Amino acid sequence: MFHIMFVVTVTVTFSLLPVQLFHPLPSPRYQFYQTHHAISPSLFMPPPSIHPLPNLAHHTTSHHITTAPSLTPLKFHNPWPSFNAAATTPLQALYTKLARNKPAFVPVPPNREGLVQIQQPDWGKGKQGTKVTWMGHATFLIETQTIAVSSTEKIEDEQIARNLSNTQQIPSKVDNRGIRILCDPVWSERSSPSQWVGPKRYTPTPCSLQEVCDGGVDIIVISHNHYDHLDTASIREIHQRMGTNVIFLVGLGNRDWFLSTGIPYEQVKEMDWWEGVEVKVGSYGSVKIYCTPSQHNSGRGLLDQNKSLWASWSIIEPGIGGKRIYFAGDTGYRAWNKEAATAEERAALPHCPAFKQIGEELGPFDLALLPIGLCTPRVFMSNVHCNPWDAIQIHLDVNATESIGMHYGTFRGGISQEYEPVTKPPEWWKSAANEANLQWGKNISLMNVGETRVLS
To answer: How far apart are CA 15 and CA 319, in angstroms?
Structure first.
């Protein structure tokens, strides 16, 4: 959504440039080996393997737009009454941007007063459990629980490492960790087709992308292709550093973009809503990941609108005691028809049925990661960006024990910057929790950028 607002309100011409303005990074894995003294054992593991799972009961193609006789979708849409397409047209965006009744502009506090705190990640070191680290905006690193590995498996993995490395010194044993999943990785300074203009980061990342990759990254999940969720420079760097040891899970219609960045076909898995895979990563174990619906849209320019699928993701650890995490990505919940709707008026609006279906099929979830910011004005933004009150309803629908607010406190741009002070989403999130009689800090909470939450 960032990019379309940027195109409409700043410059159409620039956004249509076919040139990637990021310096390309070489992808061969040996270049990384030759320039780094400390080599993560993860790089010597066998590549992750993907195993399709049966489609879930709600699987449908009602969100596909096709032309007979082809069954390949040309575009996608939100197939529910909760989405009002007329409210988010380019003309409506321009009208909202230039409206005379806008509130007074509130700048980002220069001293970071009232903004999210930043801390150096400790990755939950020394703690047992599923680990979730927030990098800002919608970027999370999820590490599954460490499993007990037999001595035979360790010997096999170490032998594989030695077979793969003839000249490099490798660690004496395979590192002890779980599967590491990186959601919507964005490390660039701007969420834009250019690093010169467009929505700029006002909260830095808590660490470099190299630090994350040094610990190992096995799976990337992408919710959709807007610039604040799919970042060219970050994707290229991950591939450069991890080589064949990382796979990318994306919605339908997104693979060609990854191929254009130099990532091999076999490392990119396209998925439709309600499809799932089991990913096995050497002796680190396995995890099930389902592509689930969200109410949003897609596009990186004016000519590719809604030609790739947007999604949320459900991450499920195996076995008794395995944790379930729901990553919403970017989503709306219901189309508001007025700016200040009462609780009764909101309840009467059609809401997206997909979240309750996700809860029925894959819940209950131990943790949900839900967007709460960049959400005003409501009549324009509610189609695709839920506010804290809508996010509370998603928390209830997916049957989450705890939900953490995200998609705020990091970037500012587009139309929302004209209407939404950057300090407000956390306040609204707490107010919405109180109104729903949910316990703050237990059912509904926030994280510092760089903080790791351990689910034990």
So the answer is: 47
Rounded to an integer, what distance in angstroms lies between the CA atom of residue 310 and that of residue 299?
10
The structural domain count of the chain equals 1
Q: Give residue 4's pLDDT band: very low, low, confident or very high (50, 70, 90).
A: very low
CA dist 132 and 178 (Å) reads 12
Contact 151, 164 (CB under 8 A): no
Of 113, 121, 135, 261, which is closest to residue 201 (Cα–Cα)?
135
Q: Looking at residue 350, which CATH number applies to its domain?
A: 3.60.15.10
DSSP 308: S
Q: How many CB atoms lie within 10 A of CB 407?
A: 27
Give yes or no for a contact between 5 and 414, defined as CB atoms under 8 angstroms apart: yes
Confidence (pLDDT) at 98:
85
pLDDT level of residue 24 (50, 70, 90 thresholds): very low
Residue with tokens 């309750």, as numbered in its chain: 356
Q: Which phi and psi (to 5°) does residue 266 adopt?
A: -70, -10
DSSP class of residue 448 equals -
Between the alpha carbon of residue 329 and those of residues 117, 273, 314, 385, the distances in Å are 22, 14, 11, 10
Q: What angle do CA 156, 160, 165 make, to 5 degrees?
A: 150
**Upper half-sphere CA count for residue 282 (Cβ side, 13 Å):** 33
Q: Angle of helix 424-435 relative to helix 388-397, nearest 10 degrees?
A: 50
Secondary structure letter of residue 167 according to DSSP: S
- Among 220, 179, 453, 454, which residue's Cα sits nearest to residue 318? 179
Assigned token pair, 401: 């024990």
Cβ–Cβ < 8 Å for 2, 299: no
AA letter at 73: P
- What does the alpha-carbon distance between residue 159 and residue 44 come to, in Å, rounded to a whole number? 10
Q: How far is CA 64 from the centre of its chain?
A: 22
Return d(Cα 121, Cα 205) in angstroms, integer. Answer: 10
Q: Are strands 452-455 and 268-271 parallel, antiparallel or unpaired?
A: unpaired
Q: Which tens digits make up the pLDDT trace of 201-214?
A: 999 999 999 999 99
Domain range for 140 is 2-455
**Rounded CA separation 72/270 (Å):** 13
